[in-house]
Amino acid sequence: MLVVAPHPDDEILGAGGTMARFAKAGGEITVLTVAAHMPPLYPPGVHEKTIAEAKRAHETIGVAHSRFLDYPAVCLAETPLYKFNAAIQSAVNEVQPHVVLLPYPDRHVDHRMVFEAVMVAVRPVGPSRSIKLVAAYETLSETHWNAPHLEPNFTPNWCVDITASIDTKIAAMARYESQVHAFPAPRSLEALKALALFRGSQAGFGYGEGFHILRFGAGAEEVIPS
User: Fold this and answer.
1) Which residues have C-beta within 8 Å of that of residue 141, sequence separation ≥ 6?
2) Which three-class secondary structure state does DSSP give residue 37?
3) Which of 89-98, 183-192, 193-202, 212-221 has the lowest mean pLDDT?
4) d(Cα 56, Cα 196) in Å, to the nearest integer?
């Protein structure tokens, strides 16, 4: 599994429970974090802190490999598009994942750029032909601030039961001490758990994570028992 995060913490917010479930089942997870909390938007020192937090969060989840591209946050557009796409493509080619989870194209410009680059990289040609599932996750706050009907709304068509891993997801998010806010902020532990409770209730689970499937290329023999 390759989980692409625009910024440190997006991967836990959107897919932490699914990642924990995947890791517990013996799956190998790589998290690719694209942008970093660096100048000019963030003061020096914040980057090192969030990287350390990310590594602790990933350890809690059971992530095997943590990779950081270290593009300054909100400055992705300053990199020539072909170079930016090539960096994402290179990571996908190297990991050769079977499952790719990427951010939904929402309010944050970095999320949209990362979405576009990943969609280019996961086209079913070359090494990416091994990818069986591509799905977009929601990110608390940003995904839910799109303008209704004028921009795409996040409407999940796949819900993963994370009842057994919700506590791991919350514990991992708590590792991002600099990113967690006090309730009722959307990026609070209470709001994160409430969203999981809501998504789970939509699908008959205790807790769930919603995704929008963008491509499902598994053969019939992989999903229908013989």
Assistant:
1) 186, 187
2) coil
3) 212-221
4) 22
Residue with tokens 């008959």: 204
Query: CA 96, CA 30: separation in Å to the nearest integer?
Result: 10
Running DSSP on this structure, what letter comes out for residue 184? T
Residues in the chain: 226
Q: Where are the beta strands (DSSP E) in the chain?
A: 2-5, 30-36, 65-72, 99-103, 133-137, 158-161, 208-216
Residue linked to tokens 């967690």: 180
How is residue 84 written in tokens?
A: 């930016």
Q: Output the pLDDT for position 217.
A: 83
Look up residue 132 and give its amino acid: K
All domains of the chain in start order, with CATH: 2-217 (3.40.50.10320)
Task: Tell which residue, 26, 42, 20, has the closest CA to residue 173.
Answer: 20
Question: Token pair for residue 177?
Answer: 């001490």
Contacts of 123 (CB under 8 A, 6+ apart): none
The pTM assigned to this predicted structure is 0.95
